[in-house]
Design brief:
Layout lengths: L1 H5 L5 H7 L1 E5 L2 E5 L12 E3 L2 E3 L11 H8 L4 E6 L3 E8 L2 E6 L6 H7 L4 H7 L3 E8 L17 E9 L8 H10 L7 E5 L1 H17 L4 E6 L5 E5 L1 H12 L7 H17 L4 H27 L5 E8 L1 H13 L4 E9 L2 E9 L1 H11 L7
Antiparallel strand pairs: 1-2, 2-3, 3-4, 5-10, 5-11, 6-7, 6-8, 8-9, 11-12, 13-15, 14-15
Helix pairs in contact: 3-7, 8-9, 8-10
This protein binds adenosine-5'-triphosphate and magnesium ion.
Length: about 375
């Protein structure tokens, strides 16, 4: 641990105090729960190896002049996929997959090992493969992609595990191709003078297809900006408001603001703005109404996930969730073709309890 931390350009003595210890199959590791001294949240130390956390990507609310002001050369537009962030590294011959917060996830680690990563790490032992895990069968997110059946990786970055610096976009895409690592879709590289138009067109198309948005990147991969579709703002709200008391109010505010700026920049007519407002309102209110009805009828509320894999991996994932205090309702637990398939709901206790309280006449101070 100390030798690893000494390699970082940061106050190692103070940093050490903030790392939290955990184990994976008996192997000890430490992760950093919050950003400290410029070292990203989710940074992990395993033995003498540091794997830096994935940096936060800023968002623009207005593409023009947001994009030309932020970059100073051509940009590549990549699709922003909606799943969960994973970093995959090889530490002393063992491939491990970390979640954003720096937890070695047994489910994701097993899944990662199905990709041809051995060849990649032979040539690039100090790189971390950063990607989004997408698809219907995963324990963290619920967004579906028609082209993904189970759970699949899409790579969007290759970074040096200690320094955190990214490979240039073109090199990274070529490298992933060469090693058969699946990547996020790309929508071309554009001069700054035409970048705004290119992003707007891409966003309009992604919005029609119900997809999340884009990440716009400088050629060296060091600068990135995110921008999202109206479709995902509504989907996020619908997803939050069927558990209205489990999400903070900031979550709602941020998405209303994104929509308002998008309406202005995309020059919505009065009629279009009205339609946007109606859709937004429906995305918020209808799921909330449905959940109140469900609780009234004695049903549970919460997100339902399906996971598939070898029995031990699935068991250790469920145990991990329970040890974190999550309340799980197991809806189905079977074997299909030798794999264990579990469908479970992460019960939204706060929403259910509050809804029950108000349904039985409870009062609120506001
Ligand atoms: P933060 O604001 O810290 O980045 P967040 O979880 O709120 O965290 P998001 O709004 O989902 O972040 O946007 C950033 C995330 O988008 C990345 O962490 C990554 O997991 C995901 N992502 C999906 N596609 C891409 C892509 N093409 N390039 C970079 N990141 C991508
Ligand atoms: Mg995301």
């Amino acid at each position: 641990m100390d030798r690893a931390l000494a390699r970082l350009d940061a106050d190692a003595d103070d940093l050490r105090q903030h790392f939290e210890r955990d184990t994976y199959h008996g192997r000890e590791y430490f992760s950093l729960p919050d950003e400290r001294h410029g070292i990203e949240r989710g940074t992990v130390v395993v033995d003498d190896t540091v794997v830096r956390g994935f940096p936060s990507i800023p968002r623009v609310l207005v593409l023009d002049p947001g994009v030309p002001d932020f970059f100073d050369g051509p940009v590549t537009i990549e699709e922003k996929l909606n799943g969960y962030n994973v970093r995959i590294a090889r530490v002393d011959d063992e491939i491990l997959a970390f979640t954003r917060s720096g937890y070695v996830c047994p489910f994701t680690t097993t899944l990662a090992r199905e990709y041809p990563l051995d060849d990649f790490f032979e040539e690039h032992p100090e790189q971390v493969v950063c990607g989004e895990l997408v698809g219907p069968e995963n324990p963290y997110t619920t967004h579906d992609y028609a082209e993904v059946e189970g759970a699949e990786l899409r790579v969007f970055d290759l970074r040096h595990r200690l320094r955190g610096d990214p490979m240039a976009v073109a090199d990274r895409r070529e490298c992933c191709d060469r090693f058969d690592l699946p990547q996020v879709p790309v929508f071309g590289t554009h001069d700054l003078s035409v970048a705004v138009d290119a992003v707007r067109e891409t966003i309009a198309d992604l919005d029609d297809r119900g997809r999340e948005g884009v990440v716009i990147k400088s050629q060296d991969g060091r600068q990135a900006l995110k921008y999202t579709t109206s479709a995902i703002h509504r989907a996020d709200l619908a997803h939050a408001f069927d558990k209205p008391f489990d999400y903070g109010r900031d979550f709602l505010f941020a998405r209303v603001i994104r929509e308002a700026f998008q309406a202005v920049e995309f020059e919505d007519s009065d009629e279009e703005a009205r339609e946007r407002a109606r859709d937004l309102g429906e995305a918020i209110l209808l799921p909330a109404i449905e959940s109140i009805r469900a609780v009234d009828e004695g049903e549970t509320v919460g997100d339902t996930h399906t996971v598939r894999g070898d029995a031990a991996t699935v068991e250790s994932l469920l145990n991990q969730f329970r040890s974190l205090g999550l309340h799980l309702d197991i809806e189905r637990d079977t074997y299909v073709d030798g794999e264990r398939v579990v469908e479970f709901t992460k019960v939204a206790d706060a929403s259910r309890d509050k809804i029950e309280h108000f349904l039985s006449g409870g009062t609120i101070d506001e």
